């Protein structure tokens, strides 16, 4: 009985050692159309009111992954808030959730005409 208990304790110890190390999250760029769709879903799920969302690539990166910036107009005076986004394990990650994602002001998209419905 005692050897079986030692084997069981050893098995639990070995299993526990491997479980403490988490896998690195998979980071991917979010193309502007996908970023807009996912951010729209996220804002609606939080019941936030906004007027429009415009997403463009900005040429910056986070951990070597290109960032997409989405400007969201919350409609007060107008109040435009920047969301810099990428995909983390296939889900939208923003600078509002992770302040390490760089999102300083820039003029990306000002030289383009974007029509959205």
* Main pleated-sheet profile: 5 strands, antiparallel
Fraction of residues in β-strands = 25-35%
Cα-based radius of gyration, to the nearest Å = 21 Å
Average pLDDT over all residues: 82
Poorly predicted ranges: 12-16
Structural class: alpha+beta
Distance between the termini: 72 Å
Number of helices: 2
SSE succession: HEHEEEE
Q: How many beta-strand elements?
A: 5
Description:
There is one protein chain. This protein is an alpha+beta fold. It is built from 2 helices and 5 strands; from the N terminus they run αβαββββ. The chain has helices at residues 2-19, 32-45, and strands spanning 27-28, 52-62, 65-73, 80-88, 91-94. Strands 1, 2, 3, 4 and 5 form a 5-stranded antiparallel β-sheet that branches. Strand 2 (52-62) and strand 3 (65-73) form a beta hairpin. The radius of gyration is 21 Å and the shape is globular. 17% of the residues are buried. Residues 12-16 have low confidence and may be disordered.
List the helices and strands and how they pair.
Blueprint: H1 2-19, E1 27-28, H2 32-45, E2 52-62, E3 65-73, E4 80-88, E5 91-94
Antiparallel strand pairs: 1-4, 2-3, 3-4, 4-5
Concise description?
The protein contains two helices and five strands, in the order αβαββββ.
Structure characteristics:
alpha+beta, 117 residues, globular
């Amino acid at each position: 009985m005692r050897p079986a208990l030692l084997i069981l304790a050893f098995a639990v110890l070995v299993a526990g050692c491997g479980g403490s190390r988490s896998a690195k999250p998979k980071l991917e760029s979010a193309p502007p159309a996908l970023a807009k769709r996912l951010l729209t879903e996220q804002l609606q799920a939080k019941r936030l009111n906004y007027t429009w969302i415009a997403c463009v690539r900005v040429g910056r990166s986070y951990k070597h992954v290109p960032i997409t910036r989405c400007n969201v107009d919350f409609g007060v005076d107008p109040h435009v808030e920047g969301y810099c986004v990428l995909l983390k394990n296939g889900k939208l990650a923003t600078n509002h959730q992770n302040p390490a994602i760089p999102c300083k002001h820039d003029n990306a998209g000002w030289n383009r005409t974007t029509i959205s419905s």
